[in-house]
Structures are given as structure tokens and as C-alpha cells.
Amino acid sequence: MAKTTQTYWNPLLSENLRKWRPIEGLEDAAEELTLSTDPETGAYTRLTRFHPGADTAAFGAKSHAYPEEIVIISGRLYDRAFDLWLEPGHYASRPPGELHGPFRTDEGCVVLEVSSPIVEANRRCRNDRDDIPFPS
After folding, report:
1. pLDDT for 26-63, tens place per residue?
2. Please, what are the domains in the chain?
């Protein structure tokens, strides 16, 4: 099954504010809007909006067992793991296990995330010869 699809729309318009949902544990700091999902694989594309003054230091840094791509859409976000302020246009393709965060923002920030949780399971599907490593 493929990800869900939708025709053109602008999730950043004020008329779409009601579609955003608070992120569990970060209710006062951030919210998310899922744009597309694949219910079979768990792959998703979403926007995360950090409110001005948000700080996730209490949750520490994190990593995932799957790859993740991010693009900063607006605002700026500080990633403590990299000691770097991310601004519009910053892009990262994170490999599984890469440590990132905690995050903080002074003015707020919108991030586009593309995640593929089942890729790790797919990597276990070997090619015909076990002596050849599966490409990363």
C-alpha cells in the first residue's frame, strides 16, 4: 500500500489551524499535522510546529531506529546535539540511530518530517547472497 494522497492544499493557512494536533507530552510547546501516512508500513510525512519559546530539554536528545528527513520551513530551531541554529531551507537526512535534539526555539518553527519506520525491517530482507552486505 502507498501513502495516502491529497490534492493541493496549504496546511499553513489559518483556516487549517484546527487540523493541527498537540504532540503528546509537548502540548504547550509543539503540535503536528500529519500530511500523509502509509498504514501498512508506518511511513509518514508531517509538519511539526514548535511554538515561540518551546524547549524540549526536559525530554533530552532522541534517536530513531529508522531514517528521517527534515526541512525547516519557517522560523528557527536550535538543535543542541549539533550546536546549530536551523533556519528555513536547512535539510537533514538522518540515518537510523542519529542523535538529535533537544530543541529550542525563540520565535517558533515549522519543520517538515518524512519518516520511514519500516525501512529497518526491509533491510533484513537480504539479497540472494548473504556474503554481500545489503546497501545502507
Report:
1. 999 999 999 999 988 889 999 999 999 999 999 999 99
2. 31-118 (2.60.120.10)
Contact 43/3 with Cβ under 8 angstroms? yes
Beta strands in the chain (DSSP E): 21-22, 30-37, 44-50, 68-75, 77-79, 84-86, 91-94, 103-104, 109-115
User: Which secondary-structure segment (H or E) carries 123?
Assistant: helix 119-123
Give CA 121 to chain center in angstroms.
Answer: 19
pLDDT tens for each residue of 10-35: 999 999 999 999 999 999 999 999 99
Q: What is the CA radius of gyration of the chain?
A: 17
All three cell numbers of 26, joined, read: 509537548
Give residues with Cβ within 8 angstroms of 25, minimum separation 6: 59
pLDDT at residue 96 above 50? yes
